[in-house]
Design goal:
about 220 residues; mainly alpha; 7 helices; elongated
Amino acid sequence: MNNLSIWLAVLTTVAMLLVYEIAQFILSQRNPTIIARTAHAHLREQWFEAISRQPNSEILAVQALRNSLMSTTVMASTAVLGLMGTVTLAAPSLNATFNHTATGLPLLTPKMVIELVLLALLFASLIASAMSIRYYSHVSFISSIPVGSAERQRWMPVGRVYVRRAGIMYSWALRHLILVAPLLASLLHPLAGPLVSAVVIALLYTLDRFDQKLQQP
């Protein structure tokens, strides 16, 4: 493959993922009920409100949040391992590119673009996971406050917001890990990037749809 073909393949891979995510964001703003991530965020809010009306439900709430914390922690660990591995593999080529340039400016290559985007996705997944853990931890404390107490009522608005944010951060962390697949395919072969991107987008499209008919009237 010539350099132009490689550039087109790499840019197509990145553009397909970016356009899909922008489209999903626009849809979530226009009609949140048909997008899974926003519908699930509303579900978490309703769960917190319902559990906060049931006496003696503090242990049940904390156990449910603990499961979410464990899942998010595993995802954060995965992002850290992926980030460390990517840095180890990409550091030599990035260092050579930045240090051996006649003009003093780095020579941008398709491989460098893929490596930088890959690092950005893994780092974003790590940050989103860490923020999700932070919010879930705070909600755990709020949920352990006895139902009906003045303190529980005072912190109810905070808990409702935090449980929603925790779920959204978890969703972004998982999504960023999934989007790593097309980039890894591009590193193996540039033409594999667009093909894997199409497969990942088709998979995400089915997962991002929320069927309102599943809800009971």
